[in-house]
Structures are given as structure tokens and as C-alpha cells.
Amino acid sequence: MGHEVVFAGESSKTSFISDQGFDVIRCYEPDPDLLFGNIRSGKLRFVDDEEVFRMLEADIDVIRTSLPDIVLSDGRFTAALSTQIAKVRHAAIVNVSSTEYRALPYVPFFDWIPSRLISRSSRVWKSLDRLNLSLEMKLFDNVMNIFLKLSRKYKLDRPVTATNCLTGKDITLLADIPEYFPTRNLPPDYHYVGPLTWKSEIPPPPWWSPETFSTPLVYVTMGSTGVQEFFSNLSQILPSVHFTTIISTGGQPADLQAAPGKLFLESYIDGDLVIKHCDLVICHGGNGTIYQALSHGKPVIGIPTIPDQKFNMRRVEALGFGKSIDLENFLKNPSLLSDMIKQVLANPSFRNNAQSMQNILNRYHAATTSADLLARSCS
């Protein structure tokens, strides 16, 4: 569209950006192992105040050096602060789960109540959901009150809290669909654009030959933030299974050995290429991978490791296109996964429900819609 695009970050993953010919400005990021470790352990105070200050200073330095017309952030929880301080337009890509307008609780406080006592479709349950949402947001904002303190310090027009810190000051692009993640009271500057998933240009590996794979074909990916123990436990069940498996490790160490015709192993692979031909996707419950699977009408088994992924998998199960396994249960008993694979493959309702979601997703063109919204905002 003729716009100059510059990226900012400080991660080994920026090689994917520079390989595409874009400039990457160095910008401080927290240690991902520490950050995700805090999140996995359930710490509401997922990052300390000093890290927030350091990120904020790095943001402002990048903005004042590059002088952008608009900043687009993805998961940068200081951007809503820094763009107000630097007085520059700001858009953010975010999932519904990380906004104050989500219609479903992030942490379901009342799920222990049996559905036979309170129907999940009743007014009472909807009232409990609203109470749940209010309580969890107030708790999170109170524990991570550094955002509100900084908002007051800089006298910001739009106060930033832990709940809304990932959203945009001027535009928020919701990389979701309402059928999967509904909202309530959504403002006009929030836009459902559909999933923005990575379209890989990685060429197929030398062994790639879909017509020769025996069925069923199962694709396993735990992203780049998965748990290493997953792969060692997976190796315990693979010798006894009757399906062909393709595994993408996301560059993580994996105690696995490829087996010709049975197990194929790659650090990175074109997920769309594999999912198009597979019968089932096994993942950590990441939003991007789930949407990739649904775009091809394939069911999902998730083994979530962080709260966002657990939130995603509750929706997967509620909508009937997949199943979830608790990570600790899997690590104790890996055969749970092989049993669940058989269950999902044998029940056509999972595939049928995934294909229904595929039909909805076909109506979205997320990248084009997002680019149009950003371009109009800059004009």
C-alpha cells in the first residue's frame, strides 16, 4: 500500500522479520523465560515494576527516534502508556480475552457449581458471569497497579490498567471472531478483523509427500513457548500408536527421533501446508494454531500451559470441535493423549463442528481489513 513499515523488538524471533527485508530497531523486551514462567505459575504480578519502567523508556526512545505516524503493538503491555506520553497514534492487535469487553470470564470462579443446579444458559448463570468478570478485573488491576500509577503520574486522558494494557489507544484490532470469543458493550474503535495467523514461506521438507502418508495423520505443534517435558512424554506413547505423526518443535529441544513413514520431525514447518492434509491438530491451545486448524476444518486437542491457552481451550470444548488435557495429568500419564486422539478421530461431530467454524472464518480477510483500518487512521 506504499507505507513504510519498521519493526522494533529484541528477540531471536526478529530474524523472521529481517529475513523478509524489514528494518528492526532494537527495543528492550523482558526475558521470555521469566515472563512466561511467571504466567505459567499463575502469578498475577507477572512482571515487576522495574521491567515496566525499562520497557516504557525503550518505547519512548524508539518512538522519538523513528517518528512514526502510528504505532502498531502486539502484546507490548507498555504501548498504551508510551504512545499517550509521546502523543502518537496507537493501534493494537489483541485477542478478546485480553480486553475489558470480553463476555466470558478469563478465570471461571463459579465453574465448580454443577450445571444441574444452575443451567449455563440461565439468567442466574449470566449474572454470575458478570460478577466473575468484575471481580477478576478488579483483582488483576489491583495487583498490577503500576499501570494505573503511571497513568496518574503522566495525567493520561485514557487511564491504562492491567486489564486494558494490551489494547490500542486509538484502534484495537480483535484477532478473533465473535462466534468464538463474544464481547459485550464493544466501543466503535474496537474491530473484529478475524484471526491474523502467520503465513509461512518455509519450503516443504525433503520428505514431504502427502499422498504417501498413512492415515490418520496427526500434526503436533507446541509453538515456541511450550514445555520441553511435553516431547519426552510424547515419545513414550508414539511407538504404540497407529497413526502417522508430524511434529514441529518450534526450535525447542526435543528428545525424539524421526522414524521413516511413522514420525516426521522439524523445528519449523508451514503449518497451513500440514494442517490441510492432516486429520487432527495437537497444540498448546494457542489462539493462532487453533484458528489455523479451524481455517482448514480440523479438530483440535489442546494441552494448555498458560491461562490464555486454558481460556481458549474452554471455548474449544464448549463449541465441540476439540478436547483439552491438563498438562500435569498428561505428564503423569501420557497414555491419556493417545486415548483422546482415538476418541476425537472416532467421533465425526468434532470434525463437523470444526468445519462449521471454517465456513464462518471464510468470510474474514484479516490482513486486508486490518491494513485498511490502519491506513485510514493515518490519513
Automatic annotation (TrEMBL):
Residue ranges annotated for the Erythromycin biosynthesis protein CIII-like C-terminal domain, each copy included: 251-359
UniProt keyword Transferase, yes or no: yes
KW GTP-binding (keyword) present: no
Keywords, alphabetical: Glycosyltransferase, Transferase
Domain of life: Bacteria
Matches recorded under PANTHER family: EG:EG0003.4 PROTEIN-RELATED, FI06409P-RELATED
Protein name in UniProt: Erythromycin biosynthesis protein CIII-like C-terminal domain-containing protein
Species the sequence originates in: Geobacter hydrogenophilus
